[in-house]
Amino acid sequence: MSASKRRAVLGALARDLRSLVTGRETPLMARATLAEERWHIDRGRAALDQGDPDGARAEAETAARCRAGSTAAATLVTAAGRSRPIRGRSGARALTSSTVEAAAAQLRAQGHAAPVLLAYHQASPDNPFQDLLYRRAWDHGLAPVPLWDAADIDRLPELVPAGMRAVLHLHWVNRVVGSSPDAAEAAVRAGAFAARLDGVRAAGIPIVWTAHNVLPHDTPYPAEDALVRKAIVERASLIHLLAAGTPELAAPWYEIPAERTVHVPLPSFKNAYPDVLTRAQARFALGLPGDAWVAVLIGGLRAHKGLNVLMDALDLAAEQEPRLHLVIAGSPVKSASTEAFLERARAHPRVSLHARMVPADDMQLFLRAADAAVLPYLVTLNSAVLMTALAFDLPVVVPPVGGIAETITPEVAATFQPDDPASLARAILAVRDLPADTVVAAARRISDSHDADRLSDRLMTAIAAASASGRVFGDPT
Predict the structure, then answer these.
(1) How far apart are CA 248 and CA 369, in angstroms?
(2) Under 8 Å between Cβ of 69 and 104
(3) Rounded to an integer, what distance in angstroms lies between the CA atom of residue 312 and that of residue 420?
(4) Which residues neighbour 135 within 8 Å (Cβ) at sequence distance 6 or greater?
(5) Measured between alpha carbons, how far is 369 from 392 in angstroms, rounded to an integer?
(6) What span, in angstroms and rounded, lies between the C-alpha atoms of 75 and 408?
(7) Which of 151, 212, 413, 466 has the fewest other C-beta atoms within 10 Å?
């Protein structure tokens, strides 16, 4: 560095030091302040785009504190004031009295003199199932709102205003004991959950349970998870069976009383996902050969889905079908068996692996690129993937169990024995040979028979009746 440049740098440092001592802002500080302001403005705009004006306003206020008179901050505050939060999509997820009162007001405006809050847990916002299930809820005087945290169940009685009733609708409840460090703690959590339900029951709030599974998939604590479900069944005014055979399959773990059940199967997922791409578009986007025969496995990648069995079956089927290609798309759960599967899939020349959560907009990519959907599950009771594949007019390879067996017909499905690679390979080859026109017609018949509006009507009618009866069940002692 030259002497003149060195003197200039030292002079600038001296001026910055004097500014710091006297409290004046230096050019360096000004640049940092401007960068921080812009960062908060960008975060605020993103919050507004996501339906969270309260979050946008908070970021704008922080930006204004960074630099007084910020025009960008003032503009963002104005935009936030003109927006309303999109319920269920803003940062705040705890159920509030204002949300409950708004639900009651909307139901009364629709002509329902006795509005009912239908509070459901667990919520699954990335799965269209609950939106489909509750499609007709408002028409029956029921306002479905999610309880994101199990602790919110305790607050439910105090949130229901005078002139409004409530129903607690439970779904998977796999988080109750799933993260327990050991079986002893799992048992404690199961007991605490039962006590939580007793608080709801004591307030006169009926409990409804949708039985998605007999027990959670891959549960490390089957006995304790069974205790959770036994506690629910003992206290539930209504038990919603997605599969008619659920009571028989659950019998080794807990008893489901027939007189308190209603059978309403999984709805069709027709139009639940965007569907505008052609096969050629989807295959080009995924880099698949245009003349390949493509099977797709889509959804969360977990051990109970028979992942490594599928890899064995792929090699067996490929001996007779040289065009066979397997597309795998879904978010993997961390486990030794899943890691072994991913390693095999990455190295296999016939596999295209997309080990990530599949956004709703991308479902069509994988399903439109496919000739068939394969569900190589070792154990299951119901399957939204099945209903989604049928909604895209795909033939399916499935195990003949639970609600799957109650839904499929031979025109659209080939079945296999779980945990048998040879059987799965034969099913893959069999579904390849199903006539395309017959497959499409059968898939559409099934989808039509599982019309979401009709099935939602049936279940909401049953839930409204349970609420109107005022009856609660269960003896906590």
Answers:
(1) 38
(2) no
(3) 9
(4) 452, 453, 456
(5) 11
(6) 56
(7) 151
What angle is formed at CA 248 by the lines to CA 245 and CA 250, rounded to 5 degrees? 105
Grouping H, G, I as helix, E, B as strand and the rest as coil, residue 31 is helix
Tokens coding 416: 């296999």
pLDDT of 13 > 60? The answer is no
The pLDDT confidence band at residue 9, using thresholds 50, 70 and 90, is low
- Residue-wise pLDDT tens digits, 144-157: 999 999 999 999 99
Of the candidates 51, 163, 148, the residue with the CA atom closest to the CA atom of residue 95:
148
The pLDDT value given to residue 17: 58
Which residue intervals of 356-420 are DSSP H helices? 363-368, 384-391, 402-407
> One-letter amino acid identity for 13?
L
Which residues, in sequence order, are CB contacts of 253 under 8 Å at separation 6+?
Answer: 214, 215, 222, 226, 229, 230
Q: How confident is the model at residue 477 (pLDDT cuts 50, 70, 90)?
A: very low
Domain range list for the chain: 3-81, 98-267+454-469, 279-450
For residues 268 and 133, what is the distance between their CA atoms, to the nearest angstrom?
Answer: 10
The label of the residue with tokens 């038990």 reads 239
Cβ(360)–Cβ(273) below 8 Å: yes
Q: What is the mean pLDDT of residues 20-36?
A: 66
Same fold, 98-267+454-469 and 279-450: yes
Average the pLDDT over 230-254 and give the result. Answer: 98
Out of 40-54, 361-375, 433-447, pick the least confident.
Answer: 40-54
Cα(93)–Cα(281) distance, integer angstroms: 38
The strand ranges marked E within 86-141 are 116-121
CA–CA distance, 292 with 350 (Å, rounded to integer): 10
pLDDT digits over 158-190, tens only?
Answer: 999 999 999 999 999 999 998 899 999 999 999
Name the fold adopted by 98-267+454-469: Rossmann fold (3.40.50)
Per-residue confidence band for 5, with pLDDT thresholds at 50, 70 and 90: low
Topology of domain 279-450 in CATH is Rossmann fold (3.40.50)
Residues 6+ apart with CB under 8 A from 262: 238, 239, 240, 241, 458, 459, 462
Short-list 312, 306, 326, 329, CA closest to 398: 306
Residue 295 burial class via C-beta count within 10 angstroms: exposed 0-12, middle 13-18, buried 19 and up = buried
